[in-house]
């Protein structure tokens, strides 16, 4: 009596480090994944306090660099919703970022032409910045709705040109509407969370004057950014596992096929555009409170390209991948800032380095450093466990599984 066995071990063999990590992660239970995530979050939060010697920046404040990374990570997550998950090329995402920043600045700055006194009601005082954050998200989302309703009928290069024009229009408005935005002079004195006041920090721990010791203002903004990143990731993750997320994937892969199969493509594209815009407004509000000064120079096309670069480098459609991409575009220029090449700092060549990196990536790994993998969303964990199950040997004469 002979038996035949089926060897499926090679079908799921990891092909590289990324696959091994992904396989290890998928095999963890949900509580195990949460445990690893909490430990990783704590280690990330402790980075500016531990200051590992190999990665600490020397020419710039390490806490401030990490605070900028958290802000750009928020931008990358929002842009990833539009570009990576719904498959729409947006070259003017900096416009939403600018709208969020200007909403906070116009509502809280003493230089704002809207106000004629130092008291702005709920938009003044210690909680003025916090009161403006929901307003910035809502107004930016409405801006995305207004822009997306007429423009999302077009696709591809045409949509990219339209969004690029939107970003430039917002910047030009901010530069020329002097009676509203104060023009090139900008808006200074933007409020921030006045929390943790003490004799050494009379304006609170988030104030720029808190620049000595271990827990500087940059560290506090970094911690706040991490909390916001986690909250946004939870919301986007739940959307991915819903009908909305599945519709985004269908639209990204083939919009015509998705529409034929009954997916209301325009509706879900508009959802992605509005959600991405709202996250961009949130990141703009964080930027305004962090630097306490807003002017049009911060919202150029090149910054929009850098945000898109973070998504492309990390891996379109992969939430954690785009966070890694955001870390790369913020951290690397700051890390090499103190290295001199001739009479110029190496950090000044960041656009050259990013251009070379993108060309190399498009040739050898066009899907990004951490590409998104298509997977079953509904009952995915059960299906994965069933596929991974090692089968028993099959009796060739009876066709039944041999008992162990």
CATH architectural type of the largest domain: Orthogonal Bundle
Provide the CATH top-level class of the largest domain: Mainly Alpha
Strand order of the largest sheet: 1-6
**Percent of residues in beta strands:** under 5%
Assign the CATH topology of the largest domain.
Answer: ABC transporter involved in vitamin B12 uptake, BtuC
Task: State the distance separating the first and last CA atoms.
Answer: 16 Å
Quaternary structure classification: single chain
Query: What is the number of domains?
Result: 2
Topology order in helix (H) and strand (E) letters? EHHHHHHHEHHHHEHHEEHHE
Stretches where pLDDT falls below 50 for ≥5 residues? 1-14
The structure class reads: mainly alpha
By DSSP, the count of extended strands is 6
Gross morphology is globular
């Amino acid at each position: 009596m002979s038996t035949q066995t089926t060897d499926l071990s090679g079908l799921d063999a990891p092909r590289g480090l990324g696959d091994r990590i992904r396989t290890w992660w998928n095999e963890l239970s949900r509580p195990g994944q949460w445990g690893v995530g909490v430990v990783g979050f704590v280690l990330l939060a402790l980075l500016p306090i531990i200051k590992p010697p190999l990665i600490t920046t020397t020419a710039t404040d390490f806490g401030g660099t990490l605070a900028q990374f958290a802000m750009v990570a928020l931008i990358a997550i929002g842009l990833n919703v539009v570009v990576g998950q719904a498959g729409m090329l947006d070259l003017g995402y900096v416009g939403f970022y600018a709208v969020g920043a200007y909403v906070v600045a116009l509502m809280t700055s003493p230089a704002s032409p809207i106000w004629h006194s130092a008291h702005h009601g709920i938009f003044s005082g210690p909680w003025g910045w916090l009161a403006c954050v929901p307003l910035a998200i809502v107004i930016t989302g409405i801006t995305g709705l207004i822009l997306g309703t007429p423009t999302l009928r077009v696709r591809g290069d045409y949509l990219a040109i339209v969004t690029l024009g939107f970003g430039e229009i917002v910047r030009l408005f901010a530069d020329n509407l002097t009676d509203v935005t104060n023009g090139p002079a900008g808006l200074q004195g933007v409020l921030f969370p006045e929390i943790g006041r003490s004799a050494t920090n009379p304006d609170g721990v988030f104030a720029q004057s808190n620049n000595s010791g271990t827990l500087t203002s940059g560290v506090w903004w970094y911690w706040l950014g991490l909390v916001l990143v986690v909250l946004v990731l939870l919301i986007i993750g739940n959307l991915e596992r819903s009908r909305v997320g599945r519709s985004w994937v269908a639209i990204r892969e083939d919009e015509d096929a998705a529409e034929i199969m009954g997916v209301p493509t325009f509706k879900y594209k508009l959802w992605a555009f509005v959600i991405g815009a709202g996250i961009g407004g949130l990141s703009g509000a964080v930027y305004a409170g962090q630097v306490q000064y807003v002017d049009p120079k911060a919202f150029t096309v090149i910054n929009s390209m850098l945000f898109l670069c973070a998504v492309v480098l990390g891996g379109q459609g992969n939430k954690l991948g785009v966070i890694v991409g955001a870390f790369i575009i913020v951290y690397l220029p700051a890390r090499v800032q103190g290295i001199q090449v001739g009479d110029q700092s190496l950090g000044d060549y960041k656009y050259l380095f990013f251009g070379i990196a993108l060309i190399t990536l498009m040739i050898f790994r066009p899907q990004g450093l951490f590409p998104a993998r298509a997977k079953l969303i509904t009952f995915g964990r059960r299906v994965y466990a069933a596929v991974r199950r090692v089968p028993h040997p099959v009796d060739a004469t009876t066709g039944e599984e041999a008992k162990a």
